[in-house]
Amino acid sequence: MAFNYVRADRDQVLLMPTSMADWLEEGHLAWFVIDAVAHLDTTKLHAAHPNDGVGRPAYDPDMMLAVLLYAYATGIRSSRRIEAACRTDAAFKVITTGLVPDHATIARFVVDHEAAVVDLFVSGLRLCAAVGLVDLSWVAIDGTKMKAAAALRSNRDAEWIRGQVEALMKATKESEAAEMVAPDPGADLLSAAQIRGAKARLARLEQALALIEAEDAAAAETRAAKADHATEEAAQGRKLRGRKPKDPAAALARAEADLAAAEARLTAKAEARAAKVAAGLPIGPANYRLGEDERARDNAKQALEKAKAAAAASAPAPRRANVTDADSRVMMTRTGYLQGYNAQVVVGANQLVLACSVSNCAADVSLMAPQVALLKDCLAKAGISDLPKAWLLDAGFWSDSNAGLVADADVLIATTKDYKQRRAARALGTTIGDPPEGASPSEAMEHRLRTAEGGALYAKRSYTVEPVFGNLKQNRGFERFRRRGTKAADAEWNLMGLVNNMAKLFDHWSPGCLDLG
């Protein structure tokens, strides 16, 4: 039985149009990327390729940047997959005009121009501002945990790392010495590539070891400072305030200081009592209650014995560092632990990324001030004189100092989890007016969030910043950093921020609309 099909004729002479302009429709993303790159400031990219005629000519940096932006926008970040797409994909062929940069060239381009990515992000922000996309009615700051190019199981202590360093150095020296003395084709020697790999691994191990030693030294310095303070307070008979430390060694030092303070108080009161007796003065029982001080001393002795037993029973866990990416940290997420970074963004009212950076600090609370400073710097460099009218942040950023960090703007920071905030608002009801006199910073913030206007403004936070993370992670396939180190991760995050903004600009783009004169 014959079927009526539109059949593929693989014997026809011409499969593609003779002009690349006919390969893609007019509104295709590839044409937009080419148009957008032509309006970005790529001066630093070109500065890395001096026109001295020495060596093989480099690929045009504007073309390479367009390839990267289009690839990242379509969820392709592997340099090998980008090379393959340049061979077979019509859109990539239009961008490269048929050239096929190999995967090593693409990877080196990313590495060589790491420092220029932040300027490219600012240039993209300037372009968005020129067409009226920057909306500073409010901004939301948030962070998301991103996987590093390292595994959790690669965290090792200093003893293990030192053993690996010694083994690598010994193997490399033995191989180099054997090759210099009597080269033997049958000998089991390290090849040049293996030696280079060993040296790279040795550098990573030494970096991780240096990090552990620096953190141990900083922790020891902090403990010594606290111990000195405790000793000074104890000498004057003053009991230390604050929560007892959880670390057994620190708890032992605290117990020793508490006992010294109790004994100092008891000795001082006993001497004062003896002096009054010797002078024949009356002794007021309310002023010299030695029994209470003796009981305090005995309690401090018991606490010290318990602290000694706890310190002896629990040896301190050795500090660890990741031997693959020493800058990365173990971070807790909703689904468990990961080895990675805290990727921060400042997002405007229309989901445009206004500033972004990467930190290895898991807690958000210490990152608000750097993000505020970074946003102001990015806006100034982009030629934007306005500042946000409101700042919206979740409970991870709450602190008394953060609440008053930005002057002349409405700062709304949740003081607890969002669902708890909503539950408290339903239970306590709405409020009006200014916070009551004498209210603490947290009470004043909770009052502001329970007002009708405050609650409505804070509700904009989630649908301002959360879709950016969802778009980059799910739609663009950006789930982990490809390169190692904080600087490399920060450059990659800024590049993804530029991709996000270019996608927003693409929604408003039509051929020629970027020619702003």
Brief digest:
The protein has 18 helices and 8 strands. The protein is α/β, with parallel strands linked by helices and 517 residues long. A hairpin with a 2-residue loop joins strand 4 (329-333) and strand 5.
Question: Care to describe what's here?
Answer:
The strands form two sheets. Strands 1, 4, 5, 6, 7 and 8 form a six-stranded mixed beta sheet that branches. A two-stranded antiparallel sheet has the order 2-3. A hairpin with a 4-residue loop joins strand 5 and strand 6. It folds into three domains: 93 residues, no CATH class; 198 residues, no CATH class; 170 residues, no CATH class. With 517 residues, the chain is α/β, with parallel strands linked by helices.
Q: Main traits of this protein?
A:
two-stranded antiparallel ribbon, 9% strand, 517 residues, six-stranded mixed β-sheet, 18 helices, alpha/beta, globular
The span between the termini is 64 Å
Q: Could you report the average pLDDT, rounded to the nearest whole number?
A: 83
Overall 3D geometry? Answer: globular
> What share of residues is helical?
40-55%
Major sheet details:
6 strands, mixed
Layout of SSEs?
Blueprint: H1 29-39, H2 43-47, H3 61-73, H4 79-88, H5 90-96, H6 103-112, H7 117-130, E1 139-147, E2 155-157, H8 158-181, H9 192-235, H10 248-278, H11 290-313, E3 320-322, E4 329-333, E5 336-348, E6 353-359, H12 368-381, E7 390-393, H13 400-403, E8 410-413, H14 418-428, H15 441-449, H16 452-458, H17 460-475, H18 486-507
Parallel strand pairs: 1-7, 7-8
Antiparallel strand pairs: 1-5, 2-3, 4-5, 5-6
